[in-house]
Each structure stands twice: as structure tokens, then as C-alpha cells.
Amino acid sequence: MILVVARKKRIVMSQTFPEPVSVPPMDRYNQALINNLHPPNWVNPEPAPCYNLVVIGAGTAGLVTAAGAGLLGAKVALVEKFLMGGDCTNVGCVPSKTMIRSARVVADIKYAEKFGIGTSREINIDFPSVMERLRQIRSEISPNDSAKRFQQEFGVDVFFGEARFSSSDTVEVAGETLRFKKAAIATGTSPAKIPIEGLEEVGYITNKTVFSLTQRPQRLAIIGGGYIGCELAQTFQRLGSEVFLLQRSSRILNREDPAAAEIMQKVFVREGIQLLLESKINRVERQEVETVIYYEVNGQEQVLRVDEILVATGRTPNVEGLNLEVVGVKYNQKQGVIVDDYLQTTNHRIYAVGDVCMQWQFTHAADAAARIVIQNALFSIFGLGRKKLSSLTMPWCTYTDPEVAHVGMYPKEAREKGVEIDTFCVPLNSVDRAIIDGETEGFAKIHVKKGTDKILGATIVARHAGEMISELTLAMTNNLGLKAIAKTIHPYPTQAEVIRKAADAYSRSRLMTPGVKKLASTWLAWRR
Ligand SMILES: Cc1cc2nc3c(=O)[nH]c(=O)nc-3n(C[C@H](O)[C@H](O)[C@H](O)COP(=O)(O)OP(=O)(O)OC[C@H]3O[C@@H](n4cnc5c(N)ncnc54)[C@H](O)[C@@H]3O)c2cc1C
User: Fold this and answer.
1) What residue owns the CA closest to ligand 1's atom 47?
2) Which of 162, 363, 371 to mutate to test ligand 1, by most ligand atoms within 8 A of the CB atom?
3) 53, β-bridge pairs
């Protein structure tokens, strides 16, 4: 009994109670989310004398680093200032893909007549229900990232509060000092701000707030035609908003293959999205109940009246307030924390991982990089056995409809690196299953090293391109050439046959040389 009292006393004296958080609207789903990802009754544990690894940020990068290290027996502290799960679970992949699913249902119903299915009544899009489903799904997924799970299953000490370095081997959080042998910065990014006159005063939404909406914005201006802007533009348009997509350059998705972007532009225009390309926003102001955007195209000022503005113009790394100067970790606002190929910062005891330091800002990239950090920070001695970021083959996908998925090099990149390529491109309208599905807008384009079957990169545009790109990623990761894909039997009819057809095109290009043709016809003539 005395012991219990003594322990209790110690708990009260040294353990800290983090600030509660809220996620609007505070319904039962968001309450369940918070209960998992930042429990209101959470008591930060008493810090261990020294941690093998202190991880700052519990998004994908931090979670995977902490869980993996914990499972391997390391003493790990994980610090999160807001919600575990970071952007992906709370304000990124999960909520956006949930909304996209609802939007696809709308599109399927809208185009049902094409398939001989009549829809007698107008489609009733219940936006509040769509958003409630989003909150429900998000809360259902949230136990995976929960504080309790990390504590109980992975043996990780979870601390809530804002972390900052206080000396070369300590991090401070909520009044506690965590001593470390190694640390990992996994603080992610925030929506980039754009300097447009009047924008801050008028107000706008970003990925941090858009998934909390309960009412549909009737007229929505989206600034930024990158993957976040495009996914949300199509989603809101399909869910009944009138969407205006403002993009500074002459095309959307301007990092992707131009042919892919061209298809998406055609689809967007057909679905009613107003594409305002090459537009420069001069200022924004509020007039009674609406927001007025003054923008310029070809030197001509135009006026756009909307109910809401969504800013999706890129990401800014979360480096502020970490006291990185104290520990000699170099960073800048563009690249975030500067790391080498081993994800080591300019302080050899401190690593960085995920969006805060990487060009590939994706959940699966953060996950893959976290595994590198575990190996390099905890299990490498004298630099032996270290893993490199550059050894990864990274696919990605924009979840528009059709999806745009890519892996490896683009032709432009190959040109810049002086690598000569051959490209094999097969349109989806030559694939039976795509014709059957009525999903012929798209293609598979595969780039190989000139004169060989070594795959250097690929772009697929198809309704489920994100699923299909893995075949090429697998091939690239394991050094399988296009020949191996040509040899692989694909079930008929599937849209993935487009990949085999591209591989067949490669095989034909090798077989149908004049020399081979002559040899074959001589042989066959002799056999007659
Ligand atoms: C709308 C949207 C859709 C997306 N869709 C996809 C998709 O479909 N597929 C995909 O692969 N990727 C997608 N992404 C990208 C993906 O969300 C990110 O790549 C991923 O979340 C990066 O993980 P991270 O751990 O590096 O950073 P984050 O997820 O940002 O996590 C960083 C964490 O650190 C915490 N933190 C920051 N500073 C501190 C501090 N000082 N102390 C303590 N904690 C701190 C933050 O609160 C946060 O929880 C999407 C992103 C957005 C915005």
C-alpha cells in the first residue's frame, strides 16, 4: 500500500498532462478519433534515463520509425503535438480518398445510362452525409495509429506536446527532458502560404480544414493544380460544387507526363470544372456574402465570385520552433531539413525522415524511408550496413478519375541526365477490358534504356492506375526487364493487359528487325 502511494505521488510530481485538442465538428466519430490519436486523459510517461531513439512527430514517418525501432527492442520516445497519424490519417490520404470514393459513386450514377441503366430521379448528393462517412471511416482506421497501441504493442513511450531540442542530446516536451542517443525529426509539412493581397483577411481553407466542412461550398475556387488541388477539384465538382481551378502555369499536374495532364484537362472540362490556366491572382476581397477574386490572364483582369477559396499551392516543411540551430541541424524553407542519402542531418546523431526532408512527399515514401532510418540510426556501426534513400524505386499516384500513376524517370528527366530511352506506349482503347468497362481514356507508357529492356520509368493513366503501377515497380525494384513482363501471363480481360501489350511492343521491336525477319522467313521457307 505504501508502495502504491509512493508511486502515485511520483506520478503526480513528474508526469505531465497534455493539453486536450479538438477536431471540428465534435461528433462521436471525431471524439473517437481523438480518443485514439490524442486521448484527453493521456498522462505523459515518466521519461526513461536515456532513449536509443527520440522521434519527433507521429505522422507516417514517425510512427513507422518508432514502431519498427520499438519492435526491435530499442527504448523509444515518440512525441506528437497534435494528432498521431499526422496528415495522412487526419487531413490527407484517408479523408481525401474517402471523399473521392463518394464522388466516384456520383460519377458512376451520372454515366449509368451509357451502360443501359436508367436513373429515374435526380441524384441527391447529401454532402453532410458524405462528410459524416468520411469522419466515420477516419475514426475506424484510427486505432492503427493510436497512442495506446504504440505504448502497448510496440513498447513506445508516447508524449503529447510540442518538442524542441534543448541541447545536443536532449529534447524538451511538456516540461519533460528526453535524453537521446539518436533522434529522428519527422515533423512533416504544412500548407504553403501564398502572398496574395487580401487573402489572409478574407480567409480560406486548406487540407487542414477542408475535411471538417459540413456544408458544401456552392462556388469553390481552388488555387493550385497539383495533385491535391486536382483531386479535390474533381471531388467537389462531382459532389455538386461549382469548381474553378486556378493554375499559374499552362497546364495542371505539370510535373506529370504532358499526355497524362492533357487527358485530365479534357476530363475536367467535360465534367464542368472551370480551368483557369495561366492565371495570376492579383487580390482578393470580401463583398457582403461572397469572396471576389481579381485575377489576370494574358494581361487582362478578370473577376471571379465564389463562396470559398481552397489553397493547395504546395507544402512548407515544419522546421520552425524545433531549435535546430542549437543542435547544428541545417535546414531551409524550401527543402526542409537537409539530409544526406542516409537520411542523416548535419548533426550525425540526428536523422530526418518523411515530408520534412524528402522530395517524395507520400505516405509510402515516408514509410520506406523510416525503415532506412531505423537501420542507419540503430544498427549501423562505423557506417557499415547503412541503407540509402537513392536505392528506393518510388511510385506515386494522383487519385483523380482516371488515376495518374508514375514510377521512375520521366523522358524530360532522362534527357536532362543524358540517358537515351525507348518508349512503348499503348492506349487503353486498344485493351478489351477498358472498352468493356467504358474506361478507355488513358494509356500505359513505359520507358526503357535505349536498346535494352531495362525499365527506367512508366506512367499509367487508367481508372485504377494506382493498383496497376505496382507491376512495373516490382519489375524495376527487382531488375526485371520488359522481357519478363512480356513473358508473364496476364488474365484476360483485365486493364493490366495494357502493360503486357507495351511489353509485347518491346518484344516486337526486338524481333522485327530486318535481320531477324530475313532469318525467320528463310527458315520458314525451308520448312515448307
Ligand atoms: C490532401 C492530401 C492528400 C494526400 N494524399 C496522399 C495519398 O493519397 N497518398 C500518399 O502517399 N500521400 C498522400 N498525401 C501525403 C501524405 O499525407 C504525406 O506524405 C505523409 O503524411 C507524410 O508523413 P510525415 O510523417 O512525413 O508527416 P506528417 O504526416 O505531416 O506528420 C508530421 C507530424 O509531426 C507533428 N509535429 C510537427 N512539429 C512537431 C513538434 N515540434 N513536436 C511534436 N510534433 C510535431 C505534426 O503534428 C504531425 O502529426 C496527401 C497529403 C495531403 C495534404
Assistant:
1) 82
2) 363
3) 76, 182
